[in-house]
Amino acid sequence: MSGIWKHKATIIDGQTFKLKELNIWDYQWEDTGNSIQIKDPMYGKDYKLNIYRIVKENIKIQFAAGEFSNCVWGIYLEST
Q1: pTM for the whole thing?
Q2: In the predicted model, what is the mean pLDDT of residues 22-28?
Q3: How far apart are CA 30 and CA 53, in angstroms?
Q4: Is residue 19 within 8 Å of 26, Cβ to Cβ?
Q5: In 3D, which of 13, 71, 12, 67 has the Cα closest to residue 45?
Q6: How far is 48 from 31, CA to CA, in rounded Å?
Q7: Of 15, 34, 40, 48, whose Cβ has the fewest other Cβ atoms within 10 Å?
Q8: Is the residue at 40 inside a domain?
């Protein structure tokens, strides 16, 4: 994927996290087949995160997500 991806949040599994008013845990994540390489902002460990999308009516969101440790997720958004 082109573009710069920035760390948006580190959250616990199931913790409310909204993008465009949609709590990401309330919807099925569609895997786009793309991924990004990032470094954990706290410890600098390398990760490959899948890029997902959620579509609800006319709202579309795309984000990268992956587990930094058991039930601790990193969420990244592409800068525009």
Answers
A1: 0.91
A2: 97
A3: 5
A4: no
A5: 67
A6: 14
A7: 48
A8: yes
pLDDT single digits (tens) 3-19: 899 999 999 999 999 99
Rounded Cα gap, residues 69 and 59, in angstroms: 30
What does the alpha-carbon distance between residue 48 and residue 17 come to, in Å, rounded to a whole number? 21
The SS3 of residue 26 is helix
- Note whether residue 42 is domain-resident: yes
C-alpha to C-alpha distances, 47 to 14, 15, 16, 23, nearest whole angstrom: 21, 21, 23, 24
* Separation CA 40–CA 69 (nearest Å): 11
Sheet holding 59-69, edge to edge: 5-12, 72-78, 59-69, 46-56, 30-39
User: Does any domain span residue 46?
Assistant: yes
Burial of 12: CB neighbours in 10 Å, binned 0-12, 13-18, 19+: exposed
Domain hosting residue 37, numbered range: 26-61
Q: How many domains is the chain partitioned into structurally?
A: 1
